[in-house]
Model the fold of this input.
Amino acid sequence: MTTGFPPLLWRRFPERYTLAGNKCETCGTSYFPARKVCPNCRRRGKLVDESMPRKGKIVSWTQCFVGPTGFEHETPYFVAIIELENKVRLLAQLVDSDEKKVKTGACVEKVFRKINDADKSGPIAYGYKFKIVG
Amino acid sequence: MKAGIVGYGAEVPILRIKTEEIARAWKKDGVKIATGLGVKEKAVASFDEDSCTLAVGAARKAVLDFGLNAQKIGAVYVGSESHPYAVKPTASIVSDAIEAGPELMAADLEFACKAGTAGVQMNLGFVEARMIEYGLAIGTDTAQGRPNDALEFTAGSGAGAIIVGDKRNEIIATCEDTYSFTTDTPDFWRRPKEDFPMHAGRFTGEPAYFKHVLSASRGILEKTSYKTKDFDHVVFHQPNAKFPLKAGKILGFEREKFEAGLMCPTIGNTYSGATMVGLCAVLDVAKPGERILAVSYGSGAGSDAFIFKTTKNIEKKRGKIAVKEMIKEKQYIDYAEYIKHRKKLKSL
Done:
C-alpha cells in the first residue's frame, strides 16, 4: 500500500522511514516488518523494537519494464531482494545505480525517497529505496 | 557567542544536465551561456526526489557522520521555496525520518534562497539561550525554472544541513557573530498555485543581490571590526558563478578565498541550499583557526551574514565524504529526460 487512506499510510511510517522492525531477545532473530510473535520461540520469545541496519547486499534482482499503476512512468527500474547486515531480507527498488553495477553481491545503502505521489491531491508516500555503494 | 557548528551534511542528486544541452533544446549558444554564467552543468532531482528527500539525506549525514544523538535535537527548521506540500510541514517528515522526534520544535521556513540560513540564526539563538541542546537547520530546494527562461540554465537541486550546539569538545566552527539586512525588494517571486517563479530580469542584480549581499557583508565587518584580510574563506549565495565573485571583488576579497565554497559551476543554483552547501564544502577543507564569512541572499529580499572560526576539533570531525568528492558521482541526462524527471510535461 503506497497511497490511499492517510491512517493506513501513517501506520507504516516507522517501517518505511527508519526500517523499524523488531528482534527476539530469546533467540536473537531480527524481523522486518516487525512480528507480533517470534515463530521460533513462540510464547518464550521476547520481542523488542529494533531499527534495521542501513546497509546490505543484493541477493537477487530484476528489472521491470512494465510498471503497475502509479509506477508506469518510472520504467525501466530495478527491484532487488536485499540482505541487510543482520541477515534480514527485504524487497526494495534500486536507484542512482549504474546498470553495470547491478549484480548479486553488490553492496547497497538505504536512501530516503518518494515511493509514490501519483495522487496529486493525496498524501505523498515516502520511504526506503537502496543505492549501490562502492 | 558560545554556540557553533557541531555537524553538517550536504545532499546533491546524482543527475546532471549540461548548460549546453539545455541551450541545444532552445537553439541558443550553449558555450556562450555557460561561459557567461560560469555554470557548466546543474544537478537535477529525479522523479522520486524532492526538497524533503534531499533534506533527509543532508540531515542524516549531519547526524551520523558527526556521531550526534538525534534524540537530543531540540529544533528542526527546514528552509525551502519548493516544499512538497502547500500545507503540511516538511520539518515533521525530516524529524521522524532521522529519528529526532517527537520532543522538538519544528517549522518550515520560506525566504526565497535564504530560508536555510534563517533557520541557523534561530537555532543559534535557542542554543545560546540554553533552550535546546542541538538545533538542526536545513536549506533545501528542487529549484523551478520556467522552460526557456534564463533561470532554467542554473536552477539546480540540493540541500545543506547545519547542526548547532554549544559543547566545546564538539564544536568544529564557533559562530563569532551574525548580522542580517532586509528590505522589501520585489526582484523574484512566485504567486500561489503558480508552477514557476517570476523575476525582474536585471533588477535582480544591483538593487537586489548586490545591495543586500554587500550591505550584510559590510554590516558584519563593521560590527566585528574585522577586515577582509582576516578571512580565509568566503561563501556568498551563488545564483551563478559571476555574482559572488563580483561582490567579493567589490569588497576586496581575493578570488582564491571563494574557491572552496563555490559550488554553482558544477551543481547550479540550489536556491535555499546554495549558501549551506557552499559552507559544508568549506568545512570539508578548512584548517583549525580559519575564519569563514558566509552570506546568504534571498529574493524579496534579505541577506544573513555569519562569521565562523574553525576549532581544532575540525581535524577529527568532518563529513565522511567531502561534498566536492560526492558530486563527482553523476549521471548525465538529456533535455527530454530532464523534463520527464522534473515533471514539466502536463501529463506527468
